[in-house]
UniProtKB/TrEMBL annotation:
This is DUF2474 domain-containing protein. The chain crosses the membrane at residues 13-32. Keywords: Membrane, Transmembrane, Transmembrane helix.
Length: 45
């Protein structure tokens, strides 16, 4: 098993969290127009 230093581990955890948050943020930005369209459609009916 390779000896991983705490800084390497912290860097990997940081990148994992950063990429995960970017993915969640991107998904929410993609879903926003559909959410607004559904809300507008519900307001008409």
């Amino acid at each position: 098993m390779a000896n991983i230093t705490t800084t390497e581990r912290a860097r990997k955890i940081f990148w994992f969290v950063a990429l995960w948050m970017a993915g969640v943020g991107g998904t929410m930005l993609l879903a926003l127009p559909f959410k607004l369209l559904i809300r507008a459609g519900a307001a008409i009916h």
